Amino acid sequence: MLSDETQQDPHSDTPERRRELIEQLMIAGRTLSTASVMFHTAVAEKVGLSPTEHKAVELLDRLGPLTAGELAAHSGLTPASATALIDRLERKKFAKRAPHPNDRRSVLVRVVPQRVKSVSGLLSTWVEALNEVFDSYDEAQLETILGFLEQASRRQRELTDKLTGTG
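^ that's the sequence the OP posted. Answer follows.
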């Protein structure tokens, strides 16, 4: 048996422990990413959307009406792809174009609230499950998680922009 002096605290700050935690975080992140893609693909299919269309509806619902250029910028799509996406969303009655109130030369794309409710209903159980997870963390831990998610999202959007040539 090891003496107290030679036993190592599994939570101590050592280079080995840090490497192990980072490896576990990378695996957990990949697992979460895959689960998220698969979940949102299933939700999208239930309401007759592609995964990209579903996430565009989410962006429009969260950010409010956007021009095609703004939707392209927020989604990482090229302007031409964003316009084609908006055409599909209009055909499927998830979005509508409306004249921009401050710029007669452009239009805003808005979600159709009744159609968004069909998606929201499918997401409500997931939101409840997330709230249960949030309840297991204190405020400081939630702030750390929030900071990580914000930084990781920002960097992933930057890399998306580089990959698509939109940034």
